[in-house]
Amino acid sequence: MIKQLFVNPLLIVCLFISTIMPHSVLAGTDNHLGKRSDNSGGHNTASGGSKRAKLASHKVKQQSLPAVLTLRFALDQVGLHPVMLQRRSAMNLAKANKQLVHSKNNFNVWVNGQLRYVEPLASSSVQSNDDSQLGIVVRKRLYDFGQTGAKLKAAHWQIKKSEWLLLAARDQQQIKIMQAYFAVLLADLAYARDNEAMATAYVAFDKVRHRNTLGQVSDVELLQSETNYQQSRSARYTSDVARRISRAVLANTLNRPGQLSSTLAEPAFNSRKIKFPDLNSIMTQAKKSNRRLLALRSAVVAARKNILAAQAGRRPVLEFEMGGYEYQREIGSRDKARASINIRIPLFTGGQVKAEVARSTAIYYQKRGDLRLWQLRLRQVALELSQAIYVLRARRDTTDKLLEYRELSLDRSRALYELDVRKTLGDAMVKQSAARYEAAKVKYQIILTWARLNLLQGKSIFARHTQKVKKSVSRTLKQE
Known about the structure:
This is Outer membrane efflux protein. The protein is α+β, with helices and mostly antiparallel strands.
């Protein structure tokens, strides 16, 4: 029977068609419509499409951490984090869903086989009990009056949404890397400050202890001096632990657990090059290029297309079917080959279409609400970041002058010490270390705030005019 089946000319035609035409004409048309809607809707999709595709396919090779870790190298490791893997998986899922919609319009070929035993009527011309049959069927949806087209467009915009969310996740992870990187640098400065404070407190305590043995100071003063030393010593140990913890956090943020970097390069950054940002220009750019905003817009368009797809469930479906069969019992009512065009017109769906339309409509308004909420939040965040830079600039001037004063004061103390006017440097080194810590803290806050403001506008994490050319480490802040 199988041999007879495959020599059937119509079956050969069915197999040939299913081989050379794996995709339907409708699928190709809907794909064209999807591409055209991509160019007509959304913002920055033409310029951002290639970047999103490049990011999606880019695989970061894990390298060993360098002896001196730079901010640029740390930021380059963003693709290794599991958060990025999650977002890429979400994007691949969206693409798979679109392929699934495509597949429903492709040729479907299957084999029907039945092993049957029958008791024929006495009047039947064929008295065989073996009524087995075998057939090959080819079926393809020709047209569904917009249902598949709407689903393909919805899937297309879901892919756009996932691509923008992938970029947004990268931006947020880069901010986390910067925060962890600067936390290590600040922990080192805090340790240097507390170490100087402990050394100064110990020198003072040792002097008081010596004078106490000579009977020049009381035991109360000795205990007070020792208490000051023990407090400084405790603060120093706390700072030392903070150094290890901050390095562990950085290693986890880079997806390098256990790989603690001993030396981090200081990023070159001239915060005085930053101009006070104009809120209106920030919002104009953010409305065009903010990644989360674009993702939410794509989600709204996808939800609207899903409503159209649900409404199209009431429309007819036109299908082509062709098949060839072989039978053990040859009966006049059976066909060797069959070809037909079928139309299926829904008359009553039990409320399924109505429920699907209601569900899609609810999701659509939910996505519109999400979009509106983020639009309101976007302006508030832009205002807060721009005003934060305004305040940080004033704090930077204060800390810079304080650091300048502490450095001059330390130079004076050293000069007096070398002239034997003073026996110690006193707390000048401690105050200078504390001033360095405060100045660095403000500097890093400015860098982070400016980076957030750039990412809010869909820009690179560092704008070009914010960089200070310093050949040794300037590459740290170059635009990606």
